[in-house]
Prior knowledge:
Blueprint: H1 9-65, H2 73-81
Amino acid sequence: MASDQKFTRMTLTAMVVGSMVGAGIFSLPARIGAATGPFGAIISWLIAGGVMLMRAFRFHCLAVRKADLEAGSFAFALAGFGDYLWV
Length: 87
């Protein structure tokens, strides 16, 4: 059964970007493992996990101090730096 539907340029762009990001996500652990061996891969995952944990703690502290803000990172940056960066 033939279809007359065509993809829009935006759909094709999204498919290409999604494929590139997906390929990077799936190939990165293999590249790290090949370059550093299993021990290096474990160390890199531990470092990345530690950085993400520190980031979570930072957002927790910001959320406790500024509980009235509801828009995430942008709201925290706007409250901290003011409007002059986005004018």
